[in-house]
């Protein structure tokens, strides 16, 4: 089922004061810009985890940043999301800080991509800013400690809904990909609120070939079977994440396959290998080199894919829409276009830690105004 956003009478209205966002943009962001993009990411994430680890602070953060608890609830995949705005995969690859991120106001956090074996990812630098486009280019290459390493951090009760995104280890040949995904699914499935099979990152050679129906069918079938085997008492929801670069007919084929295999949903979309329509100079773009482009430049295609999927699927399956979302209005538009939930990544980097709660409050306001 798709789920829907409902607004309760208890909604506390209002956007945050502009000061809160301005503080980040005027003071913190320029300081972070002095660092290489990946170092800035690690530094900011470490600070957040440190602050949230202080006694009582996470609880206070949750109270402050989740003021609209109950207002924007979405029931989907058997889960109760406090709001429909999640953090996309790639930010917390090793599931080390999802509770701190959840306390910031995200309705859910997708951790990963985790691979069957630990791997260092591509050589640095591998993450680049294109500020004129409010975009990023990354060729991280699934740097992560491996799915087995994350299991202890995902065991036990938690306050944040956590999806786990899995991918293929780089050194595993394409013909052995299924075994790699299945190994991760078996380890991590019992601890995931939902599992995403990622076949759409541009930075693992050959990965996106797995989006072709003849390869995707056995892969998703095997992962579904593995989840049923390791978690017979709780059906772990299974989704697939697709690229914005798929041709329209291929988007339709994935939708049909998802229905055929009884998947729970589709995450659309990942980053693009395209570089069309950028405001940044050719030199700036060239300096980034290869990798996936994210942020506003992929917004239009991401919405197109969402609309296409919803038209194909009718009311069936959960759609998590991701790509270029920056404002409450854009969240609202995605929901109107058929998204069950949305995710953000790049805007969180540009706008800072207040963004999730600002989006949630803004959407609550829009929902009320249109009720
Ligand atoms: C630095 C970076 C790393 C990412 N790593 C992953 C990843 O490991 N797995 C994945 O499925 N998507 C990954 N993504 C893609 C995002 O989850 C998201 O699909 C994409 O960035 C589009 O959303 P956005 O425009 O809000 O950033 C990454 C994106 C960025 C910018």
Task: Give a quick precis of the structure.
This protein has 371 residues and is of the alpha/beta class. It has helices spanning 18-33, 37-53, 57-65, 98-103, 147-154, 177-188, 213-230, 248-260, 282-288, 299-313, 328-336, 346-351, 355-369, and strands at residues 74-76, 79-81, 85-87, 108-115, 127-130, 135-138, 162-167, 194-198, 238-242, 265-268, 292-294, 318-322, 341-344. The chain has an eight-stranded parallel beta barrel, surrounded by six helices. A three-stranded antiparallel beta sheet has the order 5-6-11, with helices on one face. A two-stranded antiparallel sheet has the order 1-2.
Subunit organisation of the chains: single chain
The amount of helix comes to: 40-55%
Q: What kind of sheet is the major sheet?
A: 8 strands, parallel, barrel
- Radius of gyration from the alpha-carbon trace, in angstroms: 19 Å
What is the molecular shape? globular
Specify the number of helices: 13
Summarize model confidence as the mean pLDDT.
Answer: 92
Please give the number of β-strands.
13
Based on secondary structure, the structural category is: alpha/beta
Cross-sheet strand order for the largest sheet: 3-4-7-8-9-10-12-13
Strand content: 15-25%
N-to-C order of helices and strands: HHHEEEHEEEHEHEHEHEHEHEHEHH
């Amino acid at each position: 089922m798709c789920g829907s956003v409902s607004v309760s009478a208890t909604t506390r209205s209002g956007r945050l004061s502009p000061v809160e966002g301005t503080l980040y943009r005027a003071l913190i962001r320029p300081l972070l810009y002095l660092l290489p993009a990946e170092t800035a990411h690690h530094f900011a994430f470490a600070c957040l985890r440190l602050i949230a680890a202080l006694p009582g602070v996470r609880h206070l953060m949750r109270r402050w940043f989740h003021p609209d608890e109950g207002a924007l609830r979405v029931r989907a995949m058997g889960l109760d999301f406090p709001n429909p705005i999640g953090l996309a995969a790639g930010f917390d690859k090793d599931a080390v800080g999802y509770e701190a991120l959840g306390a910031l106001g995200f309705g859910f956090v997708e951790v990963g991509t985790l691979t069957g074996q630990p791997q260092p990812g591509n050589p640095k630098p591998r993450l680049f800013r294109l500020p004129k486009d409010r975009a990023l280019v990354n060729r991280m290459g699934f740097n992560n400690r491996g799915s087995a390493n994350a299991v202890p951090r995902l065991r036990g009760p938690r306050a944040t809904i956590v999806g786990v995104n899995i991918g293929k280890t780089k050194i595993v040949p394409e013909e052995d990909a299924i075994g790699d995904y299945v190994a991760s699914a078996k380890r991590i499935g019992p601890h995931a609120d939902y599992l995403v099979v990622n076949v759409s990152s541009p930075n693992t050679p050959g990965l996106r070939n797995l989006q072709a129906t003849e390869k995707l069918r056995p892969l998703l079938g095997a992962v579904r079977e593995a989840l049923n085997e390791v978690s017979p008492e709780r059906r772990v929801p299974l989704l697939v994440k697709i690229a914005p670069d798929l041709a329209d007919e291929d988007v339709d084929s994935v939708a049909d396959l998802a229905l055929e295999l009884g998947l729970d949903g589709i995450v659309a979309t990942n980053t693009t290998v395209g570089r069309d329509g950028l405001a940044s100079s050719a030199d700036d773009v060239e300096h980034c080199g290869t990798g996936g482009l994210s942020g506003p430049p992929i917004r239009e295609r991401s919405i197109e894919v969402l609309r296409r999927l919803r038209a194909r699927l009718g009311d069936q399956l959960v759609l998590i829409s991701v790509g270029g979302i920056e404002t409450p209005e854009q969240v609202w538009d995605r929901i109107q276009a058929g998204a069950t939930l949305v995710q953000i990544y790049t805007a969180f980097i540009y706008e800072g830690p207040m963004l999730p709660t600002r989006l949630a409050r803004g959407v609550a306001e829009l929902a009320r105004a249109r009720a």
